[in-house]
Structure formats: C-alpha cells, structure tokens
Automatic annotation (TrEMBL):
It catalyses: 1,6-anhydro-N-acetyl-beta-muramate + ATP + H2O = N-acetyl-D-muramate 6-phosphate + ADP + H(+). Catalyzes the specific phosphorylation of 1,6-anhydro-N-acetylmuramic acid (anhMurNAc) with the simultaneous cleavage of the 1,6-anhydro ring, generating MurNAc-6-P. Is required for the utilization of anhMurNAc either imported from the medium or derived from its own cell wall murein, and thus plays a role in cell wall recycling. It comes from Saccharopolyspora rhizosphaerae. It comes from the Bacteria. InterPro entries: Anhydro_N_Ac-Mur_kinase, ATPase_NBD. This is Anhydro-N-acetylmuramic acid kinase. Belongs to the anhydro-N-acetylmuramic acid kinase family. It is an enzyme of class 2 (transferase). Pfam families: AnmK (PF03702).
Length: 394
C-alpha cells in the first residue's frame, strides 16, 4: 500500500496551455486514495498556440507540419513535466500525459479514431521518468469514444453518496462533458461546446483568446434567432454515449451559422448568445439525466456569466467541485494522474458504460525512463471509490 507520486499533464480543447498536477496515490483494498500536492498551468508560446489553432479544421496540415507540431508540443510537455517534477520535490515516480488532442474522428455517431500529439519521448528524456501516454486510443479501438474519460474519476469520487440522488459531474473546458453518477446506468458524454465557441468568437472579434470573466457577454443580450439556429444542430439530439470537438464546433461552424442568420450581430450579443448556448445545452442534458445536484469543474467555473446562466436554467444545486474537495482548476490533470496510476497497476482506465466501449481496457502506452521499467505487481481488486486526502494527511 505504498504511495506513488504521479505528475499528470494535459492540454484541453481550449489549447491555451498545459495543465500540470502532482498527486500521491495509493491502493487500499477497493479504495484509491488521492492526495493533491500542487498544480500549475504552463502556457503555450503565442506562436505555438496560433499554429495549433490553425491546424484545426478547416486548416490544411501536411506530414511535415504535423511532425514539427508534434515535436514542438512534445517539447512543451517536457518543459511542463520539469515543472511537475519540481512540484513533486524531485521524487515523482512517473508521468501521465493525455497530450494535446488535435483531431477526434467521429463518423455516423461512432468514434473512428483520435489523435493526440506531444511525443512522450521528450518527456521521458527531460525527466528520466517513465511516461504513460496515448490514453484514448485503446478505448476507441474497443468501440468506445475515447472521451470523456472523466467518467472513471467521477464514478469513483462521487460513489456511495446516495443521499444526493443522481449527481452530474460537469467539466466545462473547450468542450463540456458530464458524468452521471447514481442514475439507472453509468453514463458520460460530451454535451457540446463549453468554452470553444466563446473563445473563438472572442478571438475573432477582439483579438483576445477568451472572454475573461464573461465581461463581453455581460454587455450584450441573447439574440433569439441566432440561439435558435445554434440549438438546431443535430449533435444535441444524438443518443449517448457521444463525443465531439472543435472539428465540429469550430470556425467553419460559427461562420456558417452567422451566414444563415443573414444579419450582423454585435460583439456583446454574439458572446452573450454563445454563452447562453453552452449553459442551455448543459442544462438540457442535466435535466434529461434527472440530476439532483450538479458539480462543476474546468475553466468555465471562472466565467460568472456562464455559471449564472447555468444556475438560472436549472432548479437543482450547482456546486463548484472545490466545495467537495476536488480542485476545479486541476481536476482534469488529476484525472490524467489517476488514469496513469490505473495503467501502472494493470487496471482498466475506462468505464465502458460511459465511453461506449465493449468492455474494460487497460489504457495507454508506456515509455521507459532513464533506468528501465519496473512495474508493480498487477492489482487484483477493482477499485470502487476514490477518497480525496489533504496534502497534510499521512
């Protein structure tokens, strides 16, 4: 029952930088204990962030450009891993990396492939630590969506609290996703855009990468006809499990909808409408799942206009995950650490009922560190709950 110190890394669909979280984890029978030790965000250089943005559909990326981008992102992840090693006091056991999703191929409602860049060899070379990466592909190969993988953390973390009825764990990143805990079946899926369209519109209209604090949205009013066009997208009516990304809710999509509208929309009204779209589609999904409580994490928690709209659209408590001991800003990086920890111990990292996979699978690939690879004996008991500990807890 030793503690393992893990560095978790990922860059979400917002593509603003690399989230780093360090945590101690250990197995204790049917429980996993997780003790967060520190977090940091390492922002991409401006030119690299722009290259990533331009690589998204409808951008055209040839093999040479993809190789260069994969290398540069891998080197940025290596720098972030060094930061993680410092947060770990130089005593990390391994690194888990979800990389940077560049494309998520969905056809006919089924995920056919997924591409995360950020070569793990750069991380292993920079830190000397083993690296667990490519954590989505095996789930896709097993007929799952490879996303959202947060279902495994949420199902363990919120398990056993029957007093709350059906709980929904919500993450608002570039894409918003939910995990339903305590319902009639395990379920997780992407509800649609989180910050993706909001960030895109802010970039196009103001040159800034986001609508900080919802300030621009707060100056506008919701444009009813535009919202109606946005809500008509067929994605919202697809059955779960399902997944999406910026390859769907991207610049071509927003341009097409505004052309269909056929009239100019002010900056404030556009941001107010896109913010309402995110809140409305999340709330619709939560109501459809019979949510008795919604627990929110991700970058969207810092947008008060979005949170106000979400609370207005729901008649159940909406809490930020920090209130229950889970850091909202680092939850996905902690998820990455947890996924790596499960793989390290020979345990499945997917929850088939949430991703749609045909069965549980051990996820990812392992890149050895500087001193070879020594894995622990595979665990024989499947964990059933996650216990959050404070850093001061032994």
């Amino acid at each position: 029952m030793r503690w393992w110190r893990v560095v978790g890394l990922l860059s979400g669909t917002s593509m603003d930088g690399i989230d780093v979280a360090v945590a101690d984890l250990r197995l204790d029978g049917e429980s996993i204990e997780l003790r967060p030790l520190g977090e940091e965000t390492c922002h991409y250089p401006t030119d690299l962030r722009e290259e990533l943005r331009l690589a998204l559909p409808p951008g055209d990326l040839d093999a040479e450009a993809l190789c260069r981008l994969d290398t540069r992102v891998g080197q940025a992840f290596a720098d972030a891993a060094r930061t993680g090693a410092e947060l770990a006091g130089g005593s990390a056991d391994f690194v888990a990396s979800l990389g940077q999703t560049l494309f998520h191929w969905v056809d006919g409602g089924q995920a056919r492939g997924t591409l995360q860049i950020g070569q793990p060899a750069w991380i292993a070379e920079a830190t000397g630590l083993p690296v667990i990466s490519d954590l989505r592909a095996r789930d896709v190969a097993a007929a799952g969506h490879g996303a959202p993988l947060a279902g495994v953390l949420d199902a363990l973390w919120l398990a056993g609290d029957d007093s709350q009825g059906t709980q929904v764990a919500l993450n608002i990143g570039g894409i918003a996703n939910i995990t339903v805990v305590g319902g009639s079946r395990p379920l997780a899926y992407d509800t649609g855009p989180g910050n993706a369209l909001i960030d895109l519109a802010a970039q196009q209209r103001t040159g800034r990468p986001q609508d900080t604090d919802g300030a621009l949205a707060a100056t506008g009013t919701v444009h009813g006809d535009l919202l109606k066009l946005l809500l008509a997208d067929e994605y919202y009516r697809l059955p779960a499990p399902k997944s999406t990304g910026k390859e769907h809710f991207g610049s071509a999509y927003l341009t097409r909808v505004l052309q269909e509208l056929g009239e100019p929309v002010s900056d404030g009204d556009l941001l107010a409408t896109l913010t309402e779209l995110t809140a409305r589609t999340i709330a619709d999904a939560c109501r459809a799942e019979g949510a008795g409580r919604v627990v929110v994490a991700g970058g969207g928690v810092h947008n008060p206009v979005l949170l106000t709209a979400l609370r207005r659209s729901l008649d159940v408590p909406v809490l930020v995950s920090d209130e229950l001991g889970m850091p909202a800003d680092s939850k996905e990086a902690l998820l990455t650490a947890l996924l790596g920890f499960l793989t390290w111990h020979g345990l499945p990292g997917n929850t088939p009922g949430t991703t749609g996979a045909v069965g549980p699978r051990i996820l990812g690939s392992i890149t050895p560190g500087a001193t070879g690879l020594r894995l622990p004996e595979p665990a024989t008991t499947q964990p059933r709950r996650l216990i959050m500990r404070s850093a001061a807890t032994n």
